[in-house]
Write a structure and sequence with these properties.
This protein has about 130 residues and is an alpha+beta fold. The chain is built from five helices and five strands; from the N terminus they run ββααβββααα. Helices cover about 35% and strands about 20% of the residues. Helix 3 packs antiparallel against helix 5.
């Protein structure tokens, strides 16, 4: 369905990882309209103010099609804050990636190695600092 956003399938669920500032309209514009077959994507599990967050879902005809991971948003609040760094680092130190949801792992695994490494923590901090500016 997505033309230039990589998707991954884990345990039968489909996931996409997107940059932290991507909004719903931009995500819809990245969808292949022919692949949607006339179906309208609906976003659920948004933040209180209606923004995407890690764990938001895209549904088509009421069925979950994709689960969203926002780069750096490990605590699923739609922002990249110091709390995300603390959480990702705690998981990294304990080496227990299975203690968080798959979308949280995808949000924290910036360098896409399948586990959280120190380089990911640095990248999350860079995302956080750029959002402050």
């Amino acid at each position: 369905v997505f033309e230039d956003i990589p998707t991954m399938q884990v345990n039968g669920a489909k996931y996409i990882r997107i940059p932290k500032d991507m909004i719903q309209e931009a995500l819809i514009n990245k969808m292949n309209k022919e692949a949607l077959c006339g179906k309208t994507p609906v976003f659920i599990d948004l933040t209180e103010d209606g923004k995407l967050k890690t764990g938001s879902k895209i549904t088509l005809n009421g069925k979950t099609k994709y689960i969203i991971a926002i780069e750096g948003d490990i605590n699923c609040d739609g922002q990249v804050t110091f709390e995300d760094i603390i959480k990702a680092n705690a998981v990294r130190i304990s080496e227990r990636e299975n203690s968080i949801a798959i979308e949280q792992l995808l949000a924290s695994d910036i360098n896409t190695t399948g586990k959280i490494e120190f380089r990911d923590i640095i990248s999350i901090n860079a995302i956080r600092i750029n959002s402050i500016k």
